[in-house]
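Researcher: Can you fold this with fe (ii) ion in place?
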Amino acid sequence: MSARNQTARKTTRRRTEANKPRLPGDLEHDALVERMIRVDQAGEYGARLIYEGQLAVLVNGPKGETIRHMHEQELRHLETFDALLADRRVRPTVLQPLWHVAGFALGAATALMGERAAMACTVAVEEVIDEHYARQAEQLGGDEAALKETIEEFRATEAEHRDIGLDHDAELAPGYPVLTGFIKAGSRAAIWLSERV
Ligand SMILES: [Fe+2]
Ligand SMILES: [Fe+2]
């Protein structure tokens, strides 16, 4: 077969692939992955704002350096999901402006309650994100190996953040069970909403 024929055949095959009617299973899979990227971008955005809220209060305190370190890592996470959102043309959540305000407010409010409360906030949020990423990694197959790897890598960092919180006396914060229970419920609600709108 001539080279030209071979090229023509390849082009036809490509065209046929593109025109192939999509199966309901494909659409469900794409929708699932889109939803994951949308909620993860929202979550990393919220995390960035929480740490910015904490830094606004505690930047010059003894925990400033630790919080700044976690904030740096959230910026890397957010950059990655911002790029994925753009690459795959996924619409960001419409709730982004709300997460901006709520994230910052949560970070600043807990920081104003004290360093231990700020660390308790970190423990609560990161524990929920850790569970969330674990569930996502479980759902992703080999066709999304790169995304799965990213999620697993980020999950490890979030678990590290939770441990940093625990190492910095989060559990000694006044009203720790109530405070973390409240923040966890809010974080789960934010995840639920960001997956949907
Ligand atoms: Fe993160
Ligand atoms: Fe984190």
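Model: Folded with fe (ii) ion in place. The chain has a mean pLDDT of 90.
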